[in-house]
């Protein structure tokens, strides 16, 4: 299979406007997951699908997050060293909105697993109650992205100053 991955592709890249539309997570306890994604992060529940699933969003969209217990009620997270989702990345529109997310996490006592400045973005990393990885981030304007002399991206991973991020809420 690796040979096929490295082979030239006969088709052009996917359209530039293509996006990943939503994430659907298997959770062990639906109420606990809703308490985290709605109660802590602030997503709004748009619909319950019986007692086994819920759909949540920002701004009234039909759903950005689907949570279900169809195959996972009472289950445990996959063990370390197995394949699966590394994290769900939630993009905030502004740095101030990311600061608000950090304030919510601190108030709820949710620990971070990391916080990074990638040059192109700033990101907070954490686990949800089912130990699904979650990245909360905002993108800097493309004009501010770090570039190498040849114009290619020069992304990095440096420590994010959390106090500086929280200061956005005072402006």
From TrEMBL:
Domain VOC: 19-139
One family name in Pfam for this protein: Glyoxalase
Keywords: Metal-binding
GO molecular function, one term: lactoylglutathione lyase activity
Parts of the chain that traverse the membrane: none
InterPro entries the record matches: Glyas_Bleomycin-R_OHBP_Dase, Glyas_Fos-R_dOase_dom, Glyoxalase_1_CS, VOC_core
Keyword GTP-binding: no
Metal-binding is among the record's keywords: yes
Domain of life: Bacteria
Stored PROSITE patterns: GLYOXALASE_I_1 (PS00934), VOC (PS51819)
Protein's name according to its UniProt entry: VOC family protein
Organism encoding this protein: Alsobacter sp. KACC 23698
């Amino acid at each position: 299979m690796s040979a096929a991955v490295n082979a030239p592709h006969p088709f052009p890249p996917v359209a530039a406007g293509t996006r990943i539309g939503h994430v659907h997570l298997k959770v062990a306890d639906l109420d606990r997951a809703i308490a985290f994604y709605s109660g802590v992060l602030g997503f709004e529940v748009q619909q319950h699908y019986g007692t086994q699933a819920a759909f949540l969003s920002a701004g009234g969209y039909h759903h950005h997050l689907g949570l279900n217990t169809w195959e996972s009620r009472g289950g445990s997270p996959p063990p370390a060293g197995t394949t699966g989702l590394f994290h769900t990345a939630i993009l905030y529109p502004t740095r101030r909105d990311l600061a608000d997310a950090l304030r919510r996490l601190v108030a709820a006592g949710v620990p971070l697993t990391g916080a990074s400045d990638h040059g192109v973005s700033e990101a907070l990393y954490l686990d949800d109650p089912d130990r699904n990885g979650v990245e909360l981030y905002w993108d800097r304007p493309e004009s501010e992205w770090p570039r190498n002399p040849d114009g290619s991206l020069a992304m990095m991973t440096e420590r994010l100053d959390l106090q500086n991020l929280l200061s956005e809420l005072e402006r």
